[in-house]
Amino acid sequence: MTGKADFTEEEWNLVREGPPTAGMIVLVSSKGGSFRETWALAKTFAEARKGHGDSELLDALIADKPDTPRYHSAEEAEQQGLEKLRQAVALLRQKATPGDVDAYGNFVRDVARRVAEAHKEESGQAVSAEEQAAIAKIESALG
User: Fold this and answer.
1) 3-state helix/strand/coil string of the chain
2) How far are the Cα atoms of 1, 101, 117, 125, 136 from residue 82, in angstroms, in the given order?
3) What is the mean pLDDT of each run of 10 residues along the chain (143 residues)?
């Protein structure tokens, strides 16, 4: 298994920022619901261990509490956030077990999905087209 001790401080910060970054990318992708979506981001971390099996990596991520990045625009969040996700996954593929890489990707996907579903859209849909597009980009960044 892979844990925090397997990374330098800089590497760990990159890995640690991945899940909340995915949440922020979704949150800023469409208008409305930011309070509920922000709450969903925090709640996902609080409930994370229930559905992700045994992963020392996820235990360490959750224990560190999310450090939610701040972006000035949706475009900046998407561009910089997706690049950070790509870098984090590439680093994990070098240093982590395949199971931990999968667990990390699943956690990032879960954060993104739960943030998207936290606010019912004006059209009545659970997830907006913009949020769906953001999730697709996150999926692509995860490889």
Assistant:
1) CCCHHHCCHHHHHHHHHHHHHHHHHHHCCCCCCHHHHHHHHHHHHHHHHHCCCCCHHHHHHHHCCCCCCCCCCHHHHHHHHHHHHHHHHHHHHHHCCHHHHHHHHHHHHHHHHHHHHCCCCCCCCCCCHHHHHHHHHHHHHHC
2) 26, 17, 20, 25, 11
3) 92 94 88 66 69 75 77 88 97 95 93 83 78 96 95
Q: Which of 19, 113, 109 is nearest to 57 (CA)?
A: 19
pTM: 0.87
CA–CA dist 24, 74 (Å, integer): 9
Write down the residue that tokens 């931990």 correspond to: 100
pLDDT digits (tens, 9 = 90+) for 95-125: 999 999 999 999 999 889 988 888 766 666 7
